Amino acid sequence: MLNFMNIIKRKALSIIGNALAKTGTVLAVRAWQPATFFEVDVHFPNMDMSSWEKVQYIKVNVEEGVYRDYTPAGWDEDTRTCTLYVDGVHDGPGSRWAKMVQQGDEISYIGPSRTFHRPLEGKMIVLGDMSALGHYLALQQLAGDRALTGAVSVIEEGHLASFYDYFKWEVDAVKQQDEGGFEALLDWTKDKDLTDTEIFIVGHIPTSIQLRKELKKRKDHPNTIRVQGFWS
Ligand SMILES: Cc1cc2nc3c(=O)[nH]c(=O)nc-3n(C[C@H](O)[C@H](O)[C@H](O)COP(=O)(O)OP(=O)(O)OC[C@H]3O[C@@H](n4cnc5c(N)ncnc54)[C@H](O)[C@@H]3O)c2cc1C
Questions:
Q1: Is any ligand 1 atom within 6 A of the Cβ of residue 114?
Q2: Is the CB of 44 inside a 6 Å radius of any atom of ligand 1?
């Protein structure tokens, strides 16, 4: 019965998707080493970025009737290009798509849609796993000169080095020890003063909820804690 429902859902999505979908062209793909994380540069001539004061996401058609959410980062209005940062450390249609997509391929997508994350007045601290990297690069771009601090949890040793080689910003990479990076991310916050901060948490949903719970107990409490769950 569940399988039958899934088939119907896929067919419906396929029909709706075909009606709403726009396309982009892949300009380049860079795999980090080991190849479980991907930067996909895309030209999106018709992407509507009118709500680009908040971080946005698009639904990418990763296989017939299957869509996965990814975040445009490094948006360049003149060339209408951006990069999607795709975590492919697990097995799933989105992860498999990222491992196969090539320069010149056409991407079909729906959106963009807005998240609730935008730069805020206080000192901004970001926490999340590698699926959140594009989201935080987009937030940093929107924040301009105001530096984000925080931590992204990384599973692969090789990716820790790439993180520091590729990005010159004040967000740290911390070694992930559990499914969503809970221990490493919480540990990062321990010696930080959270007074008057705006905290963003993105990524593995149970980790995000648990982190929020822990940070709410702090005496030097942040102004806000904004959670955007990505996967579970
Ligand atoms: C608004 C929004 C924006 C997003 N932007 C991005 C983005 O820019 N980059 C990005 O990589 N992801 C992003 N995500 C998350 C991404 O859409 C999901 O992780 C998606 O489920 C991956 O699809 P999949 O087909 O590879 O795996 P699925 O079929 O969904 O899941 C297969 C299995 O893998 C596990 N899994 C899923 N994602 C991960 C992960 N990252 N790490 C470890 N295990 C995982 C699941 O728990 C499941 O057991 C975003 C999600 C949302 C809601």
A1: no
A2: no
